Amino acid sequence: MTHYPQQPGPGEEHPYGPGADPYAQPGTPGYGELAPYGQTPQTGGWQAMPAPAGGQPPLATIGDITITQTEVITPAGRFPIRGSTWTVTDMTTVSEGIPAYAVVIAILFFWFCLLGLLFLLIKERRVSGHVQVTVQGNGVFHSTMIPAHGPATAHQVMQQVNYARSLAAM
Question: Residues 152, 55: contact at Cβ < 8 Å?
Fold first, then answer.
């Protein structure tokens, strides 16, 4: 049985300290402090994305991978972007079928005129799956999965990775 700690009432201080995350375990990021905006759930608790070093602004973000002018920042670690290796695997699938509303309309209009059968010609495309991006450099390996929300997702991710590759080649 899992015990979930109670939140303090108004004017009460949390037993783990002010602003503490009651669900974080000792030794995990977020223990003793609230998780800042932009954290991603990872195994073992919440883990914050590290801030770019040297005040460099992020140039691109691919999933949970952040790219600056000189380095790649992942939950697995930081390493220089120069000489990094990038791999993209498109694991999306496109299926085509007759949507439910077209079947309902075809059945309703079939009794009034045979033109209702033309509604069965309506096709709907569904994109599912994800795009996997893998980066490695300086002994650090990280892979992220980006869900496909449409047919252009794989193309957009490929453009971002090609930008990262161009930075790695400089």
Answer: no
Rg (CA), the chain: 24
Distance CA 118, CA 120 (A): 5
pLDDT, residue 37, reads: 40
pLDDT single digits (tens) 49-80: 555 556 678 888 898 999 998 899 998 888 99
Beta-bridge partners for 137: 140
Query: CA triplet 70, 72, 75: central angle to 5 degrees?
Result: 150
Residue 56 near residue 70, CB atoms below 8 Å = yes
Of residues 55 and 33, more confidently modeled: 55
* Contact assessment for residue 91 and residue 132, using Cβ atoms and an 8 Å cutoff: yes
The pairing of strands 71-74 and 60-62 is unpaired
pTM score above 0.90? no
Residue-range domain boundaries for the chain: 1-48, 53-169
d(CA 109, CA 104): 9
Query: For residue 51, which of 71, 27, 31 has the smallest C-alpha distance?
Result: 71
CA neighbor of 53 nearest in space, from 37, 38, 73, 36: 73
